[in-house]
Sequence to fold (527 residues):
Amino acid sequence: MAIHPETDRPLEIYDSARRPIRPLDELQQVIRFRHLILQLLRRDILTRYKRSVLGIVWTMLNPLGMMIVLTLAFSTIFGRANGYPAYVLSGLLAWNFFAQTTNAAMVNLLWGGGLLHRVFIPRTSFSLAAIGTGVVNIVLSLVPMLLVMLVTGIPIYVTLWFLPIPILLLACFALGCGLLLSALAVYFPDVVEMYQIGITAWLYLTPVMYPESILPTATRTAIQTLNPMYGLLHLFRVPIIEGRIPTLAELLPSTGIALFVLLVGWVFFTENSDALSYRI
Amino acid sequence: MNAAQPLIHLENITIRYRIPTEPIRTFKEYAIRALQGKVRHRDFLALSGLNLDIMPGEVMGIIGQNGAGKSTLLKVIARVLHPNLGRVVVRGRVAPLLDLNAGFHAELTGRENIYLNGAILGFTYRQMQQKYAHIVEFSGLEEYIEAPMRTYSSGMWTRLGFSVATDERPDILLVDEVLAVGDESFQRKSYERIRQFQEDGTTIVLISHSMPQIKDLCTRATWLQHGQLKICGDPAAVIDTYLKNCP
Fold:
């Protein structure tokens, strides 16, 4: 590599004719620009609560309020005996993480696109920052969830230490979906609107708020096999509700799907990213 | 850097925008049109077959009417647009002095925004910590630096943007019509800084509609028209020809 004559740093050379494989090149750029992604993440978290008096506490108060309402409502419908409050809370936490981050990945790219016009930065930065923000939020939301469980007398298991794995898998799946959606949304802005409808339908097709036992057998089998969110939510819930580590048979299919979707999203987005800067 | 090697090498650069003959805004429309076989595009060449070499230490002025492809050319050099045809080679660190307000966030303080903007330009947190005091001093915004940027005037936004983008001397500076920054004293200061960069060997590519500025600053000038290079050479001569043909 050539050396810069004045600074001893490596000389940056950009040659449009020498293009490494796009998905790998993007990965390299992301590592080079990791500080940018951290700054974007910091910006997302700071600005959200900046003008409110309580600030970052809202990150936890907001889900706490929601959880209290849900616990009251669902305990009346499904009873408290089978640990439904914990079931609903954990399900919604994971679901909201997915729904919010995929949406944020898409919206961030559309609104932050002005930057991509002016200066070279990795084009996946916005999606990565959105996922990072989501991870911070879901980890912070675990605190009010445990609080609600403690107060309502639901047992808390030590298997909680396993949660980083399902969170990581959810993040991979959300990033893959987010990248696919962002690439589409650049071409067709109405994808953002359509996704709102889609995600609502998807929510009801996933046992998040209702117990899966109320589904007819055929429907349940279909959801279990065709809906990737089913398995991912299951992995997130098992250590919280059942107090055990998921078995390999539960873990492997979801891991495979999450990584596959991430790979497809990453390749699709990066292969099309040149066209994106012409469009945004 | 080898003196014989151009710092910026543009070879047969073509940038083609595809514009649908009828605007297709939504996926629904697209699906319907695609089924009817009615998705037609018109090609618009923002740049076509452009060849240009810029040598170390040059100050290249780009002139031309609106829509001639001047900003597109800067985007190609800044690595934002990948050419559809041709090849671009850029050796060294590029600092784009474009409208960087998009990199600021109104709710964050000036200080937080300096770090964010620095990260956009590719600097690490530690590098920015070292630059921070110098950036604030140059911007002259010490008193306001802990206030959110929404309380800043537009002049203050551009002052901060300029101070961050030019804190470290780049190998190549891209300037798109933003030399009129802030009040008069800051304008003088920023002009002085660019002068200093030039003396220290920075190569500058400058878009301007101000012919006196081009004459004053540039060592060479290029006239673009409809995405094509008309002439390139001595600034006074290029400006003369441009003004004769495009009154």
Observations:
- The beta strands of chain B are 8-20, 41-54, 59-63, 85-91, 94-97, 172-176, 203-207, 220-225, 228-233.
- The mean pLDDT of chain B is 86.
- The helical segments of chain B are 27-36, 70-77, 110-120, 125-139, 154-165, 184-199, 211-217, 235-245.
- Residues 1-93+202-247 of chain B form a domain with the Rossmann fold fold (CATH 3.40.50.300).
